[in-house]
Amino acid sequence: MAINVNMRGHKILVTGASGFLGAELVRQLHNGDVSVRATGRGKTFSNPNIEYYQADILDPAQIAVATRDIHTVVHVAGLAHVFAPDRASAYRFQLVNEIGTANVMRSAVDHGAQHFILIGSVSVYGPFTNGICKEGDPCRPAGPYAQSKYNAEQRVLELAESSGMAVTILRLSTLYGEGDRGNVDRLMRWIDKRCFIWLGRGENRKSLLYKGDAARACLLAAFRPASGISIYSVSAPPCTMRDIVDGLARALGRKYFPGRVPASLALLATSFLRNRHSEKLNRLHSIVEKWLNDDVYDTRLFEEEYNFRAETSLSEGLKRQVAWHRRAKIAEAPALSWPLF
């Protein structure tokens, strides 16, 4: 990727640099010969050639040190992949994703940073879409994670308006790739264990984004001079649920049970169970409903303004994730909950 000459000599801070997306972003920045500083909660960083600060985003003093002499902040750090949230985890979402984000933004403002890029989520639009969702559509976050991401956006926008700092919010679709521990990983494990059974026909559409393409989108935003407030939805072209399942099955060398549970029956059964006044059963209906519906977003605004196209095909990205999983030999989680797409 060509580096904007105006960005040479301007240091970029990446928070959450040891995480799934953060590590890939730092890798691409380093390969592009860009001055980069990384932060994370760990004492050390995987690449000793990267300027690294141990910094917890909930500690303003630690963040203050990390944000000095920074031109652009790419705020990736956050909490995700809590698949059975309770009240304690809901509070943790608020603490990390909302208050932690405000801490980083406020410190960036105090130290004269010019551009703040918030890595957001399409989950702020709602649990699924009716048709194609656009940036200007109302946000209807459902659940503690989505609500915390929406609240983080509001905190950043408030600080941007009072400070005049340029802000770019990238609402990314579901990420996958090597090292993923989210929805695609859970689905992969179900198929690998031959536990997968179809709900519905698999014709509904989903939006995924390979981690390398997500990092490249972040870099495009970081390399362009920015002003004001910009919000973008970012994703690869939508694919069907069957495309995802079949792609994983081929990469794993697995076959799944050929039968299926009709969508109407799955919804009826979980709707009946939902009336049992159980939080777990209520959540089961929401999971099934989300699995069966579309998640499709209008991404033309970012694609046209930044000349962005996802470069990694779905089949190739899934192959890479499966290959990494086989090499890593990650220990199986005690409980395999149904993938919440």
What attributes does this structure have?
7-stranded parallel sheet; alpha/beta; 341 residues; Rossmann fold; 11 helices; 15% strand; globular
Summarize the structure.
With 341 residues, the protein is α/β, with parallel strands linked by helices.
- Estimate the mean pLDDT confidence: 90
- Say what the CATH topology of the domain at 5-182 and 207-237 and 296-312 is: Rossmann fold
Q: Looking at the structure, what is the overall shape? A: globular
Beta fraction: 5-15%
Number of strands: 13
**Total number of helical segments?**
11
- What is the name of the CATH class of the domain at 5-182 and 207-237 and 296-312? Alpha Beta
Named CATH architecture of the domain at 5-182 and 207-237 and 296-312:
3-Layer(aba) Sandwich
- What letter string, H or E per element, gives the SSE order? EHEEHEHEHEEHEEEHEEHEHHHH
The major pleated sheet works out as:
7 strands, parallel
Helix content: 40-55%
The low-pLDDT segments are: none
The CATH superfamily of the domain at 5-182 and 207-237 and 296-312 is NAD(P)-binding Rossmann-like Domain
Q: Report strand order across the widest sheet.
A: 3-2-1-4-5-6-11
Radius of gyration (CA) equals: 20 Å
Structural class: alpha/beta
How many angstroms separate the termini? 31 Å
